[in-house]
């Protein structure tokens, strides 16, 4: 099994937007990820939090989540409560445990080579975006002209 990660996606309104569901489906279909557990959370205007699981969806709603084979029950009531406190009023969220299944072959290769993962750390989104924005900004070259760089490392 590849690394597991908790992901919470929030949207204003009573349901998740279709493009989010399609992006998750795409990730599952191409083998990049597997949804191990899923819970839906809703917070109303008064701050009241409700949650429901896949098995509680109506038949017509289930068709959007056919990319989930089974759930493992990894999410606890405490997890749902903590997430419910963090989402905005009048919003819906999906709380997911996902497996990065694409890494399975990598782990097999590492193990087969008697290697080991020394560090595996996620860079926070805001830090990554800031670095990428900085890297994409026009820079002055050696002659002082503004423009983009080319070649290795640019």
Provide a short characterization of the protein structure.
With 154 residues, this protein is of the alpha+beta class.
Give your account of this protein's structure.
By secondary structure, the protein is α+β, with helices and mostly antiparallel strands. It has a domain at 4-102: 2-Layer Sandwich (Dna Ligase, domain 1), CATH 3.30.1490. The chain has helices at residues 18-29, 59-62, 77-86, 104-112, 125-136; strands at residues 4-12, 34-43, 49-53, 91-99, 139-140, 146-147. The strands form two sheets. It has a four-stranded antiparallel β-sheet with strand order 1-4-2-3. Strands 5-6 form a two-stranded antiparallel sheet. The protein starts with a strand and ends in a 7-residue tail after the last strand. The model is unreliable at 141-154 (pLDDT under 50).
CATH topological fold name of the domain at 4-102: Dna Ligase, domain 1
Largest sheet: 4 strands, antiparallel
Per CATH, which architecture of the domain at 4-102? 2-Layer Sandwich
Radius of gyration: 20 Å
CATH C-level class of the domain at 4-102: Alpha Beta
Neighbour order of strands in the largest sheet? 1-4-2-3
- Mean pLDDT comes to 79
Uncertain runs are: 141-154
How big a fraction of the residues is strand? 15-25%
